[in-house]
Amino acid sequence: MSLQLKSLTITDPFWAHYRELVRTEMIPYQWNVLNDNANITIEKERNDNSIPSEKSHAIENFKIAAGLKQGNHYGWVFQDSDVYKWLEAVAYSLSIHADTELQELADGVIDLIALAQEEDGYLNTYFSIEEPERRFKKLAESHELYCAGHFIEAAVAYYESTHNEKALTIACRLADCIDVHFGKEEHQIQGYDGHEEIELALTKLYSLTGEQRYLELSRYFLYERGTDTTFFARQQAADNGHKAVIEGMNHRPLEYYQAHQPILEQQTAEGHAVRLVYMCTAMADVALLAGDTAMLEGCRRLWKNIINKRMYITGGIGSTVDGEAFTLDYDLPNDTMYCETCASIGLIFFAFNMLKNEARSEYADVLERALYNTAIGGMALDGKHFFYVNPLEVHPESSRHDPGKSHVKFTRPEWFGCACCPPNLARLLTSLHKYIYTIQADTNTIYTHLFMTHTTELEINDHPVQLEQITNLPWEGDVSIVTQMKQSTSFTLAIRLPYWAEHYSLLLNGNPIDTDPINGYIHIDRIWRSNDKLELKLPMEIKEYTAHPLVRADTGKVAIGRGPFIYCAEEVDNGEHLHLVQLTQDQTYEYEFDEQLLGGVGTIKVEARKRNIEPEWEDVLYASKAPQTYTSTALRLIPYYCWANRQIGEMRVWLNKA
C-alpha cells in the first residue's frame, strides 16, 4: 500500500481571503516594519519601561552583523526571529502564489543572513554584534537556540517552496554548529535553551534531509531538559557579563522554563505557555519519528491537563501576565488573563502533531477552536493591527488605569516591542493547507480534520486521485467531497465529527451511511470511483456553554457558540455596562448573516434583560435593601474573532445567566 498527499489548493472564500490578506497586506506591511520604514506606533505589550519599542531594527541588525553597516544591536535579544518568521510566511505564500518580486526580496534576505553567519555556522545578531564572548553562556535568557530554530523552520519551508539551497545550507551549518557545542561529551555543553523551539525545528530538518543527527539532537534537548536543575544557576554564576541579556529574568522559577523536572515526569502544564506548547509540539514529532512511546505518553498527559483544566473556551492558554504563564487547574480569569496569540498558534502545532501520531477528534477539535477564535482574533480585519493578548472580557477604563490590566488592550496596536505574534500568525495562515489532512500510509487512510473548500491531489497505490471538498462553513454546516480518478481505487476516507455538532447525517451517492465513529471519525473503506459524492450535514445549532463548577470566573455565566465560533457582546452593539446584562431561562436565539457587517459575519440576536441603576444608588456604594429592576434589551452577539474592529468599547464572552 502507498499513499501520498501531493498538493492542496484552498479556494474557500473565508480562508482564501485571509491568505490573500497575508500576501497583499501583512507581508509587505511587516517588511516595512522590519526595515523601520513604516510610519507606525510601536507599543509595549504592558507597562514595562524595559521593553524596547522605538523601532524594530531587525533587518538593520543583520546588516551590522554582516559588516555592511556600523552600529549597535537594537531590540530584544530574539529580534532575529521576527525576520525568520516573516521569511517562513513568504515561503508558504510563494507556494500558493508565484511572485517573482517577493521571491527576489526573500532571496536577498537569505543572502544577508548568509553574510551574518559566522565561520563555524553560528548565527545570532545580538551576540555577534554585542557580546561574542557570551555565546551559549546565558541560555536561560539568550534565546540563541530559539532563534536558530526559527531560522531552520524558515529554511526548510523556503527550500520546499523554492528549492533555494542557500537557505538550507545555512540551516544545516547552523544545526551542525549546535550539534558540535551541545551533548554529553566532556567538551560539550550539557544543557538547553530557556525557550523551546530548536527541538521542533530539528525534527523538520531531519524529515527533509534524512540526517539522523538532527533527530537525535532534538531528542537530546528534550530529554536533557529538567534533568539537572542547577544548569541555569551554574551558567548564571559563571557568567562574566556586565549586564543582563533580558532584564528581570533572574527571579523566574524553573517551572517557567519547564526545567523543574525531566519532561516525562511533568504531570501538569507549567510555566510560560508558548514554551510549553512548543516543547510538546517537538515531543509529539519526536514520538512519531523515533517511535518513542514514552514520549507520546508524556504528550498525552500534558495535553489532558491543558484541555481539561487549563484552556479557555476560545482555545486560548495562559492565565496570568506574570510569566505569560499557566497558573493552576480551573484558574481561568477573563479580564486579567494572557491568552497570547502565539500560545494558541503553538497549541495548534501541538494538536496537529498529535493527530499525526493518532487520529482522535479531540485534537482536531482543539485545533479548530484555537484557529477560528483566538488565532485569527489576534489580527484586525485590515491585516495591519494585532493583539498580543486575547482577553475574554474588556473594560477600557480598567485597562487604562489598572496597572494589573495594562496588558489587556481594547484595540489592536500597529506593532509591538516584542513582535512575535504578527509574523507567527502570518506563517500559520499561509501554511493552513498543511492542517486539513493527515494520512496513514500503511492502511491507505485519509483523515479529514478541517472543513474548508479546497482541492487536493493524492497518489494512492500509484494512481492519481483528486478530492474536492466544497462547504459553506464556517457559516453553514453542509460539506461535500467529490472524487475524481482515472481508475477505481481502494482507500479509507475518515471524516471528523466536530464537537459542536451533536447530530449529523452522512450520504454516499445519495445513500445513508450508518456506521459508528471510531475516535470521533467516520471511516468509509471502499473501492472509490470517479464522481463518488460524500455529503455531510452538520447542524449549526446555537449552543450555550457552561464552564466546570470550579472555574470561579464563570460561575452563573454562559458562553454562546455556533459551529466553530464562540460569540461575544460588544458595547458598540449593546451599550455600556455589559456586566449588567443577563440572559434568562426562556430566551430564544436568532441567527442572521449580515453581509454588510465586518466583512460579512453571522450574528446572533437574543432578548435579554439589563439591570437598571436606580436613582437610589446616587452617592451610595453599599446598601442593605437595594432595589433590583430590569429593562428588556435586544442583545446582539458577533463572532469573537472580529471584536475590536469598529470602535473602542467593552466586550464580554461570558454572559450572566439568570
UniProtKB/TrEMBL annotation:
<dbReference type="Pfam" id="PF07944">
    <property type="entry name" value="Beta-AFase-like_GH127_cat"/>
</dbReference>
<feature type="domain" description="Non-reducing end beta-L-arabinofuranosidase-like GH127 C-terminal">
    <location>
        <begin position="545"/>
        <end position="656"/>
    </location>
</feature>
<feature type="domain" description="Non-reducing end beta-L-arabinofuranosidase-like GH127 middle">
    <location>
        <begin position="445"/>
        <end position="540"/>
    </location>
</feature>
<dbReference type="Pfam" id="PF20737">
    <property type="entry name" value="Glyco_hydro127C"/>
</dbReference>
<dbReference type="InterPro" id="IPR049046">
    <property type="entry name" value="Beta-AFase-like_GH127_middle"/>
</dbReference>
<dbReference type="GO" id="GO:0005975">
    <property type="term" value="P:carbohydrate metabolic process"/>
</dbReference>
<dbReference type="InterPro" id="IPR049049">
    <property type="entry name" value="Beta-AFase-like_GH127_C"/>
</dbReference>
<protein>
    <submittedName>
        <fullName>Non-reducing end beta-L-arabinofuranosidase</fullName>
    </submittedName>
</protein>
<dbReference type="Pfam" id="PF20736">
    <property type="entry name" value="Glyco_hydro127M"/>
</dbReference>
<dbReference type="InterPro" id="IPR012878">
    <property type="entry name" value="Beta-AFase-like_GH127_cat"/>
</dbReference>
<dbReference type="InterPro" id="IPR049174">
    <property type="entry name" value="Beta-AFase-like"/>
</dbReference>
<dbReference type="InterPro" id="IPR008928">
    <property type="entry name" value="6-hairpin_glycosidase_sf"/>
</dbReference>
<feature type="domain" description="Non-reducing end beta-L-arabinofuranosidase-like GH127 catalytic">
    <location>
        <begin position="9"/>
        <end position="433"/>
    </location>
</feature>
